[in-house]
Amino acid sequence: MEKLIAGERYRLLGSFPRPVAEGLRARLLSRGVPVHLETPFEGLPEAYLGTYTGDVSLYVPLALLGVAEAVLSEEAE
Predict the structure, then answer these.
(1) Backbone angles phi, psi at 42, to 5 degrees
(2) Residue 30 has what pLDDT?
(3) Taking Cα atoms as reference points, which of 11, 20, 23 lies closest to residue 64?
(4) 5, 20, 49, 76: which one has the fewest Cβ atoms less than 10 Å from its Cβ?
């Protein structure tokens, strides 16, 4: 699934529990990969405050998808 975010195409990397997604986000950001997290409740305070701990969708720029997948595969090892 793709989304247009700020004029750039982002691809869904996966859906993860919020704490896992936040950890992946930190690793991706440290590698220079921008991340967009999306909860099922966009627009509600829980989405921005990080208090929602259910599954969230993690999107990365399509151009950096390979880098993001490599980070995920490192996590699996």
Answers:
(1) -55, 140
(2) 93
(3) 11
(4) 76
Distances in Å between the Cα of 21 and the Cα atoms of 7, 25, 73 are 23, 6, 14
Lookup: tokens for 41: 């409740």
Q: What is the DSSP letter of 8?
A: E
User: CA 22, 73, 15, 50: dihedral to nearest 10 degrees?
Assistant: 0
**20, two tokens:** 């896992």
Query: What is the per-residue pLDDT for 74?
Result: 80
Q: Is the pTM of this model over 0.85?
A: no
State the DSSP H helix or E strand holding residue 64, giving kind and residue range, or none if neither: none
pLDDT tens column, 5-38:
999 999 999 999 988 998 999 999 999 999 998 8
